[in-house]
């Protein structure tokens, strides 16, 4: 009998651990949904617990507080920018815009709390540092080598791709998602290559396209 109990104990411990992981993940998913769609003040332990189908105490056991859950949620949503190859400007912008489409409004609401909520201030500082590191990796093949010029270029890239730029275009000016991505691309290339280089690149592309069209234009006999 004692042997049977000892054999069954690891199974029950594993089952309990898996159940706890499932519960934690369910709470995090609910946190993502609520923190991104509601003002911070409207997200409470009660609304989170009810949506996750757990008690408030269970939520506190996993995360300690509403602020503790917010920290996990903030890191979860920003991790969606990973996986872009260095130098892939267009791919990086697409990933960034998609991330802003999901999280931008929540970020703007969090920015409004930066001066009054310590956890918001900490998360936003962490987010700015993470965004700069992401830009550094994405644009690494095109960045100047000197530390001073590299820092200036990264600052310009940060300003050009900040969530405030997304808000201005998408929410304040009503620009479409695809046009916003195009504008971001123009900003990024201007920061990296300069306006004249962009114009020269576009001019060369048009010339190449025109030559290709002439080669493929069907010949008409008189």
From TrEMBL:
Lipid biosynthesis as a keyword of this entry, yes or no, is: no
- PROSITE patterns membership: HTH_TETR_2
Q: Which residues bind DNA?
A: 44-63
HTH tetR-type domain: from which residue to which, for each copy?
Answer: 21-81
Enumerate the residue ranges of region (Disordered).
1-22, 202-222
List compositional bias (Basic and acidic residues) regions by residue number. Answer: 1-10
Which keywords are on file for this protein?
DNA-binding, Transcription, Transcription regulation
Superkingdom: Bacteria
Q: Which InterPro entries does the record match to this protein?
A: Homeodomain-like_sf, HTH-type_TetR-like_transc_reg, HTH_TetR
UniProt cross-references to SUPFAM superfamilies, sorted A to Z: Homeodomain-like
For the keyword Transmembrane helix, the answer is no
Could you tell me what this protein is called?
TetR/AcrR family transcriptional regulator
Q: Lineage of this protein's species?
A: Bacteria, Pseudomonadati, Myxococcota, Myxococcia, Myxococcales
